[in-house]
Structures are given as C-alpha cells and as structure tokens.
C-alpha cells in the first residue's frame, strides 16, 4: 500500500512541476510581447494527441492499484469486530464477546480488527487518526 501511495504521489508531483514549469515559461516568454499582443497560435495535432495519450496511459497503469485499495478496505473474515461509541470526552468500546473498555482498545496481537463507529455529541473531524 505504501508503494502505491508513493507512486501516486510521485506522479502528482511530476505533473504539478511540469505544469508549473510550462505556466512560468509561457508567462515570461509572452510577457515580453507587450500588452494587447496575442500569443501566436498553431495547431499541432501530433503534440495534442501525445499530451492526451500519455497521461491516459499513465492513469491506466495506476488502475490496478485501485483493486488493491478496495481489497485493503474490506476486513478479513476472521476480524475481531468492535463497536465504538465516540462521545465528547470519551470513547466506549464493546467487543462482540461482551467485554467493554473506555478510551483504550486491547486486542490480540496480529489479529485483524474491524471497528464500527457511532458518534454522540461529536462533530466528525477529517483529521482523525488511529494510533497503534
């Protein structure tokens, strides 16, 4: 999963730097023409096809990673199911076997877990994190 993330990050950085470079290049180049002067326009079909085909091809290379992400988002059949109720100042956890915990989670080492969350008096935050 980490390799997929870093690959996608590298692709995004590559295109961001490339597009930024082109914007700056054309801004400097055509600023010298003076105000009111239009930049020359030329249709170059091979170039237009290339800059459409190459990103499409790169996107298709990244497509198999989607399946891996979807597989990672489904818990395995032997996962330990835990129900979590998040309150304003605390979290209550209940294992399906009946054991209850407050603000701490204890589970067998190496066994996958599935958390089902419910919120009470809590505003969902996009920057939540799970530490392990």
Describe, in plain words, how this protein is organized in 3D:
The protein is an alpha+beta fold. It folds into 2 domains: 2-73, no CATH class; 75-132, no CATH class. It has helices at residues 2-31, 45-73; strands at residues 80-86, 91-95, 100-102, 113-119. A 4-stranded mixed sheet has the order 3-2-1-4, with no helix packed on it. Strand 1 and strand 2 form a beta hairpin.
Please tag this protein with its features.
single chain, 132 residues, alpha+beta, 2 domains
Estimated radius of gyration: 25 Å
Q: What is the count of β-strands?
A: 4
* Parts with pLDDT < 50 across at least 5 consecutive residues: none
Please give the share of residues in helix: 40-55%
Task: Tell me the number of helical segments per DSSP (H or I, 4 or more residues long).
Answer: 2
Secondary-structure element order, N to C = HHEEEE
Number of domains: 2
Distance between the termini: 17 Å
Q: Major β-sheet, in short?
A: 4 strands, mixed
Task: For the largest sheet, list the strands in their spatial order.
Answer: 3-2-1-4
Structural class: alpha+beta
Summed over residues and divided by their number, the pLDDT gives a mean of 79
Tell me the fraction of residues in β-strands, as a range: 15-25%
Q: What general outline do the C-alpha atoms trace?
A: elongated
């Amino acid at each position: 999963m980490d390799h997929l993330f870093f690959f996608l990050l590298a692709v995004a950085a590559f295109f961001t730097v490339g597009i930024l470079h082109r914007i700056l290049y054309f801004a400097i180049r055509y600023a010298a023409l003076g105000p009111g002067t239009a930049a020359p326009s030329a249709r170059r079909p091979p170039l237009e096809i290339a800059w459409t085909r190459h990103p499409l091809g790169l996107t298709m290379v990244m497509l198999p990673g989607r399946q891996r992400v979807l597989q990672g988002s489904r818990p395995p059949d032997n996962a330990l199911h835990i129900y979590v109720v998040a309150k304003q100042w605390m979290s209550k956890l209940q294992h399906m076997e009946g054991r209850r915990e407050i603000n701490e989670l204890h589970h067998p080492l190496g066994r996958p877990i599935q958390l089902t969350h419910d919120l009470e008096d809590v505003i969902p935050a996009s920057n939540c994190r799970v530490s392990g």
